[in-house]
Amino acid sequence: MDACNPNGSGLTLSQLATALAEGHLSSEAVVSGCLDRIRRDDPTLNSFVALADDALSLAQESDARRRSGLARGPLDGIPLAVKDLFDVAGLPTRGGSNARPPTPAPASSWPVKRLQDAGMIVLGKTATVELGCGGWGTQSASPVPRNPWNAGEHCVPGGSSSGSAVAVAAGLAPIALGSDTGGSVRIPAGFCGIVGFKPSPGLVPLDGVIPYSPTHDVVGLLGQTVEDVRIVFTSLLQGGGTAGGSSWDSGAPLRIGDLEDAELDTVTPEIQAIYRAALAKLAHAGHRVGRFRSPERLETYSALAGHLALYEAYTIHGAAIEATPELFGPVVRNRILSGRVKPPHEVMIAERRQHQRRFDTAMRGFDVIALPTCPDGAIAVSKVDEDRVPTVFTRFANYLDLPALSIPIGFTARGMPVGLQFAARRHDDTMLLSFATEAERAIDSPVPGQRATLCRVAA
User: Fold this and answer.
1) N or C: which terminus of the chain carries fewer CB neighbours within 10 A?
2) Dmax over Cα atoms in the chain, in whole Å?
3) Is residue 37 within 8 Å of 10, Cβ to Cβ?
4) What per-residue confidence (pLDDT) applies to 320?
5) Binning pLDDT at 50, 70 and 90, where does residue 2 land?
6) In 182-310, which ranges are E strands?
7) Whole-angstrom distance, CA of residue 89 vs CA of residue 186
8) Listing from the earlier edge strand, what are the strands of the sheet with 417-424?
9) Given 142, 184, 235, 302, the catalytic residue
């Protein structure tokens, strides 16, 4: 254990797990360090909306289990941040909205309870876009989280898992739960220079999570490395789910599909260059990179996904918004109310199934598709156009039921992180995570090495 990290500051989740198992760190020290950094930095970052009052006592219980040889597994004693769409026993679930009462939840949601049973310790709830409806991270009843990569200008964190991404990027928590309906894990991961993973639908139950679009909603994870995300995802699967699909022997070449130039017309030249450079590194590592031709433009899938999600969001939240419109933010309120004029649900579902079958056919020649996570790096909050959400490269995965993951690959000239996204066939989650771990090494991004500087944010 490095003496310069007495509380585990700057360590990845996998490094923390090793240090705890070998006795170089205590859970109490790790949790105390996280809480100290939250108290120091979060008044500026705005990533947390509520803190748990039992985190230190639970850490002490974890340390006692380890001393007795009764540790629950590799995650025992490791801190966790939770997006405020998930119920956590004893904490309110506001969902970024003034419309929800501050009543403590009587029980934890399924994903949180599963990780608590594995010994993880909830630090608190993180900020979210109201009801999970937004890709910039700007529409919430709580203050907008600040992207930690720019101390001088308030830049967007990405949404809707905004606080979770900021907390992990700034070193306030080693891992965080998020949810992904159209990119809500991957977009903030891309903007904040971390890993964001959206699994295949149905693998992790959503019980106790505020719904937005049941057709698209998926529990996701935000971490510092793919390995960190894989460890926690495996623990979630051990609660009852399985990830099947194809297997992959590390080192074997994969068939990677890149996008046609026409698909990149909304992407800045700078991001296009970083994207192509990353693909060149994957080709140099021995993978076969070839042009993927989607049956439809990704922006078409994005639009269709938006229509379906808004229709479902209206059926869930529309009555409450119409009864008390003053309690909801105007942007989210108007978005959801627009869902009442969409085509019949069964028509959209049938169309979606047709698109899924056609896309499955197009993917037969590829193992994964590689594409930019976002068209540009994070912009200033003051420059956000709420009518143009940054979901063109993310919604398609929800619409087509694909697992997808974003990793950091570089920086813009303004010093903001750039993400590269991989998508695989449904339930090829295990293969995707294995490949993404290898891709991290092959691309060798400068982002993780500079993330340590985010542990101290200028006020």
Assistant:
1) C
2) 61
3) no
4) 98
5) very low
6) 195-198, 218-223, 255-259, 288-292
7) 27
8) 48-51, 121-126, 79-83, 175-180, 218-223, 195-198, 404-411, 417-424, 368-372, 255-259, 288-292
9) 184
- List, for residues 411-448, the tens digit of each pLDDT value: 999 999 999 999 999 999 999 999 999 999 999 999 99
**For residues 233 and 218, what is the distance between their CA atoms, to the nearest angstrom?**
13
pTM of the predicted protein model:
0.96
Q: Catalytic annotation on 57?
A: no
Find the catalytic residue in 47, 83, 198, 406: 83
- Phi then psi for residue 180, to 5 deg, are -135, 115
Gap between the Cα atoms of 142 and 45, Å rounded = 12
- For the stretch 116-150, pLDDT in tens is 999 999 999 999 999 999 999 999 999 999 999 99
CATH code matching the domain that covers 79-293+358-455, chosen among 3.90.1300.10, 3.40.47.10, 3.10.20.70, 3.40.50.10700: 3.90.1300.10
**Dist. CA 26–CA 60, nearest whole Å:** 8
Is 160 assigned a catalytic role? yes
Contacts of residue 350, defined as CB under 8 A and 6 or more positions apart, other chains included, come to none
Among 160, 162, 213, 302, the active-site one is 160
CA distance linking residue 381 with residue 384, whole number of Å: 5
| 113 annotated active-site | no
> Domain segments of the chain: what residues?
79-293+358-455
